[in-house]
Design a protein that fits this description.
The two termini are 27 Å apart. The longest helix has 24 residues. The strands form two sheets. Strands 1-2-3 form a three-stranded mixed sheet. A two-stranded antiparallel ribbon has the order 4-5. It has a single domain, classed as CBS-domain. The chain has 141 residues and is of the alpha+beta class. The protein contains six helices and five strands.
C-alpha cells in the first residue's frame, strides 16, 4: 500500500494555518476539527507543522498560558515530509525512527494531505486482515 492510497481513503480535506495566526486560534481549530496537527503554509509554501506536542511544550514553558504567541514562534519549521509514492511500511519505519506523529504529504511543493501515525497503523492493520482472509481462503480450497 502506498501513501497516496491512505490519502485517497482519508479524503481531500486539508487543515492549514498561516504562521502569523495566534496559537490559541490554531488550537481552537484543531479542537473543532478533532485533528492533532495543522500544516503551516506561508504564501502557498510549506513553512512548518504545528502539532499538539508543540502546543503542550509552549504551555509548559509559559505557565499554562499562550498569550499572544503566534504559530510561527512554536511550530516545527522543518518537519518530516513524504511523497505519495512511498510505501506504508517504509513510512511507518521512518515515523518510528523520527518519532513523527504527523507527516505532510507533498508532491513537489504542493501539499496533498497529512498522514498520521494512526492512519498508518490503520492501513497496516487492514492490509494484514485482507492478507489473512486471502490465506484462509486459499487454505480452505
Amino acid at each position: 500500500m502506498l501513501v497516496s492510497e491512505i490519502l485517497r481513503i482519508k479524503g481531500s480535506t486539508l487543515f492549514t494555518t498561516p504562521p502569523a495566526r495566534p496559537v490559541l486560534e490554531a488550537v481552537e481549530a484543531m479542537a473543532q476539527n478533532d485533528i492533532g496537527s495543522l500544516v503551516v503554509m506561508d504564501h502557498g509554501r510549506l513553512a512548518g507543522l504545528l502539532t499538539f506536542a508543540e502546543v503542550l511544550q509552549a504551555l509548559a514553558e509559559r505557565g499554562g498560558t499562550l498569550g499572544s504567541l503566534t504559530v510561527a514562534e512554536i511550530c516545527a519549521r522543518d518537519p518530516l515530509t513524504t511523497g505519495p509514492g512511498l510505501g506504508v511500511m517504509d513510512l511507518r519505519r521512518i515515523m518510528l525512527e523520527r518519532h513523527a506523529r504527523y507527516v505532510p504529504v507533498m508532491d513537489g511543493s504542493t501539499l496533498l494531505g497529512v498522514v498520521s501515525f494512526h492512519d498508518v497503523a490503520k492501513a497496516v492493520y487492514e492490509e494484514q486482515i485482507f492478507e489473512n482472509e486471502m490465506l484462509k481462503s486459499y487454505i480452505e480450497r
